[in-house]
Design a protein that fits this description.
The complex is a heterodimer of chains A (147) and B (107). With 147 residues, chain A is mostly helical. Chain A has 5 helices and no strands. In chain A, α1 runs antiparallel to α2, α2 crosses α3 and α4 runs antiparallel to α5. Chain B has one domain. Chain B is elongated. The longest helix of chain B is centred in the C-terminal third of the chain and has 30 residues. Classes of the chains: A mainly alpha (147), B mainly alpha (107).
């Protein structure tokens, strides 16, 4: 197993970094081009899932431990809801981004949408990786020899 | 004959020839007899057609950011296409599919 799939492992090492960079591009460029938190989260999760498929679940769990995955799922929702609560505390409606910069509402909307999309991206990354860990971590119901 | 006209013609020649490669690859994938020749038809013509199509689209968009993005996409497909073909062929060989050689068909 260790010397198998040499080409796949080399290509994966080349691609994982680029996939993560593309995920950040989609995340933070979402207000100028197609993209946003959902897509960026899935692309970021794909980098970890590809790494887990090629190098094995153990290596993937060393890089991105399951306890951190579960924390990130909650952190993203907390960030999203927290932006709304902060705007309420500033005396505006829930998720009314004008609250962050009352004199320049467009600036406030820029920051608000950036933070909300960041929360969405973190949660989607966490959920996708958690689903992959849950599926891949199950013991196989049949051995390979039984087929 | 302005430069724009010339580059447009070069772009469309590249795009059309790339499309011909892709169509030939699709026909080969459908019509070839066994798994290995079909895989060959799909992968090789895809790489060639992809390079021509990306080059044609680069000519069409000129010196813009779109061209840079197209070159990056081309580099990605250039690496991942043959890799996926390798993965499929490797999985088929591991699961017992052996290529049919000339000696076999001569018998």
């Amino acid at each position: 197993m260790h010397h198998h799939h040499l080409i796949l492992r080399v290509v994966t090492k080349m691609l994982v970094g680029a996939i993560m960079l593309f995920a950040f591009y989609v995340q933070f460029h979402g207000d100028f081009s197609p993209g946003g938190g959902f897509q960026a989260g899935v692309i970021m999760a794909v980098a970890f899932i590809l790494y887990g498929i090629v190098f094995g679940l153990d290596k993937a769990e060393q890089v991105f431990p399951p306890w951190l995955v579960h924390k990130l799922v909650a952190l993203g929702v907390l960030l999203y809801a927290g932006v709304g609560v902060v705007s309420m505390l500033l005396g505006y409606n829930y998720l009314d981004y004008d609250a962050f910069s009352p004199h320049h509402p467009s600036h406030g909307q820029h920051w608000g949408i950036l933070l909300v999309e960041l929360g969405v991206g973190i949660t989607v990354t966490g959920v996708m990786v958690a689903i992959y860990y849950a599926f891949a971590g199950r013991p196989p119901p049949m051995k390979d020899e039984d087929w | 004959m302005t430069w724009q006209f010339v580059s447009e013609i070069i772009a469309w020649v590249l795009i059309l020839s790339g499309s011909i490669f892709v169509v030939i690859g699709a026909v080969g994938t459908l019509r070839f007899p066994d798994f290995w020749s079909r895989l060959h038809a799909a992968s090789v013509s895809e790489s060639a057609g992809m390079i021509l199509l990306i080059a044609g689209m680069c000519m069409h968009s000129g010196f813009t950011l779109i061209t840079v993005k197209l070159i990056i996409i081309g580099g990605f497909i250039f690496i991942t296409g043959p890799t996926s073909t390798h993965a499929v062929a490797n999985a088929a060989l591991t699961s017992g599919e052996t290529p049919e050689s000339d000696e076999d068909s001569a018998k």
